[in-house]
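Record 1 of the preview.
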Amino acid sequence: ASLHRVAARPDARRMVTPAHSLRWKGRGMILHFYLGRRFLWSFLLVFGVFVVLLALIELIDELQDFPDLAFGDVLGLVLLKAPEANYEILPLVVILSTVALFLRLSRSSELVVVRAAGRSGARALVAPLVVASLIGVVGLTMLNPIVAASAKRHNDLENTYQGRSTSTLAITREGLWLRQGDSAGQTVIHARKASSDLGTLLNTTFISFTPDGTPTRRIAANEATLGDGEWQLSDVKLWDLSEGINAENTAREIDELTLPSPLTRQRIVDSFGKPQYISIWDLPAFIGQLEESGFSARRYAVWLQMELARPLFLVALVMVAAAFTMRHSRLHNTGAAVLIAVLTGFGLHYIRNFAQILGENGQIPVLLAAWAPPIASLLLAGGILLHMEEG
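->
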């Protein structure tokens, strides 16, 4: 009766609401911290398991590839490969972490208590979403540079241990500079422009050197195409740079010429620098240098935008996994829900990779390739979540 009399007073809203509001805000913050902490521990546990599993798998692969290499060197390769391998499966780790969290909350009936306290399932997702976005930001700003450096070092060491010929490539305002070498000497290659896959060079110059650094020959070609173990040159002019010979007087012009080469397109791309080998902090300047030199930087632009969109994509995966697993375990088939959540997450991940390929090939705009899959995943996850909660 006293509560009714208080509620009937004109100033009842002013007297009751602030205290209740502060109390609910405090309880809400405690709940958010609790769920955020549980999600973080779930993520760290799943991530640690995958770190160990991937390290063991990589160790077995490296021991098979390099049976004569010292175990310490093999272990070094494994440690260098670990950051890249775990960075690639980060979406999978987020999905499994979300599934594990909400399955535990459902089985312990904690979600029932949360709903009974007046909190919707969507509000219970706020803390895990914030933690997932922070994981994405930390991975983008801190883990990405580590992955780039370790992956590049791993590739270089692997080529050295396998005895592959090394090549060095640089991009300047004057064009592209490439070096190929073997036991017979070194050849420096300069080109004004190149195709997007670096398999065809335009306005090209080849200068050959002996092992002691003495120039022996210069070749200028209008076009050079890398074939199977050879350069195929067209519209060629050749100068002999041997000592005591007038190079210009003895120069020859040839329609076509073939030069042996230990390089492949993949090795040139690797020496050029895969997008994964370049830190997110250095990538904008690298893209600007490529465009200023007249080369296509589309592949690097797509990678940059996709890395920037990664936190949003992780948030969408948390929402998708939660939508199928945050109902009470007695009200649905847990195994089927987990399977659907994981398969949906994998499907979204492969759609994202497919969009990346389309963007790199120029079939869709860069921003569309990078940002459309995360945004579409977020909208899809929101729709599924609302249907599961209200449907």
